[in-house]
Design goal:
The structure holds two protein chains of two kinds. By secondary structure, chain A is an all-alpha fold. Chain A is built from 19 helices and two strands. Helices cover 72% and strands 1% of the residues of chain A. In chain A, β1 and β2 form a beta hairpin. Chain B is globular, with a radius of gyration of 20 Å. Classes of the chains: A mainly alpha, B mainly alpha.
Chain lengths: 450, 296
């Protein structure tokens, strides 16, 4: 646990304070740089995600490695701009290879991705090991781009990073509408006269640039996650592209802050893996708790629907019982209900209790009786059920035996306007295919004296 | 000299096992799952080592297989439950596992004889020095039976080869016609996870030799080259092995000549062989296109 010597309890607080008071100006630079990177990479990754090419970022990051090494071999300098241009060149080569292989050979798209990724990476490692055998100056630190090391970044690196990140972000803002159109329907975009190929190339360039610039911070191996995980998490929060992109930018920035902090507290730690772990934690939180489409939300919705269906089913059963007694006898006990609708006694009792609470039925020693509001609801459900049965027999030409099951499901979700439409469509039919009367929409309980 | 032979023999076995498994990954279009498993196996190795404090082969294999299957299962469930695209869910899971693996390595750097470097390259050059010694070292009554990595990959190669021979017909149906296999009553899900088990075992046994990421090259590239030329599954398996062995020989020579990493050079030469094959095919098809015009 040598790496965490800084985490001895009394020093954590002071270190944390030192971090946020920015005594170290370099630290501020690193923080700003990584936030910008996190934001731009997550935003541009969103478009790759929408185009169903989430792992392209992975391949491109790996493909940058030989470019960096070649640039170093050719120019023997570690100027950030030289490295950047080398990486962009080889990433672009990788990008074209991924595109070219499936179009011109039998090789499928996923294999093309894996081939490009592993070949370029192997080439990069081969060059790296070759360089390490050479007698040249300042070759140390080249291997830092494999896993990323925020602390190893110079001000020059960060300036370049900031420029590129701002460029990427402003391009996205500027061409947002066109990118969105292409992402959702490239064919439509082409028909209305957008130069799709040019914008795709620009998008590819932006992806390559943000991947390359992130290498020193996150590293080759894990760059894919920074492009992919934030937008995947943001998908659970919203359905609207602009919101998704903003949320993923926030998540990317947040994880950048967390990982820079950890990297500061434990300098031996590589930054990239921590960024990925914090992103994944944010992803898991979104997956479970997101208010729009999280698992928890979906589960409760599902439960709510089940409860509603169970309650409405009981009301319908009571209505049917009422119908059989010609609306004379109004109180029914558990056995009556169970004879018509088989459900476990326990859930039947709890559902009845719920209905009592909502004042849709009242319970007495003799049994259960619907209140007026309960009766209205039951009547409405029955009407919808029987209208739908009629609709199916008339328009879908199903036999009366086939229609009940389907109507049983649809009665819970039909809306009022749909009901009216059905009524018009069926020209005021009086009874359902089984010969039961369809209750009209403005009746009171028959037999009840007014 | 014997060291060179051990290195080449180990590399040859690694390349052959990877090629055999890779054929099925390519045919089932699961190259990316192979990529993912080879990354996350790192976590399995580290965890198995940290928990049991031993580097015995069965433990490493067990850890890797568990994590490998977990990767496949988790990305599949994320795809179903979270309604994410399948490649996105693969990407999220394996990057997380790999990141945790790297963090654990740097946390316990003092206790584990893995470092970030060896995760990437493997250390095939050091393979001959880590040998299995049978008998008592002190009395010198025992004898040296060869490198640990060699025997590890040897066992895995035997497992891979025998399972392919035994279940050849099943695997063939599943590879080419999964829906037919399903209608014939073959348990496709079982065979899917069986294949994932083979991938995990191959990756972990190759780990010492070539590291976590270059395995991907050996899994995917020779099999893809064979996919381009072969006309039957049997031919594809043979050709994939042939390509991989050629890559080992060329790569070793390349590494010797440039003084570069052996494993990286092997992967690069596998790639070069693929590109030569593609170029040859392109030339062939162009010549074929031109022929009718010439004859007119």
């Amino acid at each position: 646990m040598d790496a965490f010597t800084l985490l001895d309890t009394p020093t954590v607080w002071t270190n944390w304070l030192a971090f946020w008071s920015f005594d170290d100006i370099n630290l501020l630079w690193v923080l700003v740089g990584s936030i910008l990177l996190g934001m731009s990479a997550s935003v541009i990754g969103g478009f790759a995600f929408l185009r169903k090419r989430s792992l392209v970022g992975d391949a491109l990051a790996h493909a940058a490695l030989p470019g960096v090494m070649m640039a170093f071999l050719l120019f023997e300098s570690r100027d950030p701009l030289v490295m950047f241009l080398g990486a962009v060149t080889s990433s672009f080569l990788g990008f074209f290879l991924i595109d070219w292989l499936p179009k011109n050979t039998k090789i499928k798209a996923d294999a093309a991705l894996a081939i490009t990724l592993s070949f370029f990476f192997a080439l990069g490692l081969m060059l790296l090991s070759y360089i390490q055998g050479l007698e040249v100056d300042n070759k140390s630190g080249l291997d830092k781009i494999l896993f990323g090391q925020a602390a190893a970044m110079t001000q020059k690196d960060i300036k370049l990073l900031a420029y590129v990140a701002l460029f990427v972000l402003s391009c996205v803002v500027l061409f947002f509408h066109k990118f969105r159109l292409i992402a959702f329907s490239a064919t439509y975009a082409r028909t209305i006269g957008i130069a799709v190929n040019r914008y795709e190339l620009l998008l590819a360039l932006l992806i390559v640039m943000s991947v390359v610039v992130g290498l020193q911070l996150v590293g080759v191996v894990l760059m894919a996650a920074v492009l992919l995980t934030p937008v995947a998490a943001a998908r659970f929060w919203s359905n609207q592209l602009s919101h998704i992109l903003i949320i993923s930018a926030l998540l990317g920035g947040l994880s950048a802050i967390i990982s820079t902090q950890i990297s500061y507290l434990a300098p031996a730690m590589p930054t990239g893996p921590w960024m990925v772990v914090s992103l994944s934690a944010l992803f898991i939180i979104s997956l479970i708790f997101a208010p729009e489409k999280g698992l928890l939300k979906r589960y409760t919705e599902h439960q709510k629907l089940r409860k509603k269906v169970a309650e409405e089913n009981i009301l319908r059963t009571l209505y049917k019982l009422l119908e059989r007694k010609n609306f004379q006898h109004k109180t029914f006990n558990l056995a009556d209900i169970q004879a018509l609708r088989s459900m476990p006694l326990e859930s039947l009792q709890s559902t009845l209790k719920q209905l009592c609470k909502k004042a849709l039925i009242t319970s007495s020693t003799e049994g259960f009786e619907m209140t007026t509001s309960g009766f209205e609801l039951a009547e409405q459900l029955t009407r919808r059920h029987r209208l739908w049965e009629n609709y199916l027999t008339e328009h879908a030409e199903l036999t009366p035996q086939q229609v009940h099951q389907q109507a049983e499901r649809i009665e819970h979700i039909l809306t009022e306007s749909q009901e009216l439409q059905l009524q018009e469509e069926l020209a005021n039919s009086q009874s359902d295919p089984h010969g039961n009367l369809i209750p009209s929409s403005n009746s009171t309980i028959p037999g009840e004296s007014k | 000299m014997t060291n060179d032979i051990w290195i080449i023999a180990t590399a040859a076995l690694v390349a052959a096992s990877c090629a055999l498994v890779g054929v099925f990954l390519i045919l089932r279009r699961q190259a990316l799952i192979g990529d993912a498993i080879s990354h996350s196996v790192l976590l399995g190795i580290v965890l198995a080592y940290l928990i049991t404090d031993s580097r015995a082969l069965p433990i490493m294999l067990g850890g890797a297989v568990i994590i490998g299957l977990l990767t496949a299962w988790l990305s599949d469930s994320l795809h179903r439950v979270g309604k994410l695209q399948s490649d996105a869910s693969i990407g999220i899971i394996f990057t997380l596992f790999f990141a945790i693996g790297v963090i654990l390595i740097s946390l316990y750097a003092g206790q584990i004889d893995l470092d970030q470097e060896c995760v990437l390259y493997g250390e095939i050059a050091f393979v001959p020095f880590d040998t299995i010694y049978i008998g008592n070292l002190a009395t010198e009554s025992g004898f040296d039976i060869g490198p640990r990595a060699f025997w590890g990959i040897g066992i895995v190669f035997t497992i891979v080869l025998s399972s392919i021979i035994i279940s050849f017909n099943r695997l063939k149906t599943i590879a080419f016609h999964p829906s037919l296999a399903l209608s014939l009553g073959i348990n496709v899900i079982f065979w899917h996870y069986f294949l994932m088990t083979l991938v995990s075992m191959t990756t972990v046994a190759s780990f010492d030799a070539v590291g976590a990421i270059l395995v991907v090259a050996l899994l995917v590239i020779p099999a893809s080259s064979a996919y381009l030329v072969a006309r039957s599954l049997k031919a594809m398996l043979w050709m994939a092995v042939g390509y991989s062995q050629l890559a080992v020989l060329i790569g070793y020579a390349l590494a010797f000549w440039l003084d570069s990493s052996i494993s990286a050079s092997i992967a690069v030469s596998a790639g070069l062989l693929l590109f030569v094959t593609i170029a040859w095919q392109q030339v062939q098809s162009q010549r074929r296109q031109r022929q009718p015009i010439d004859s007119l």
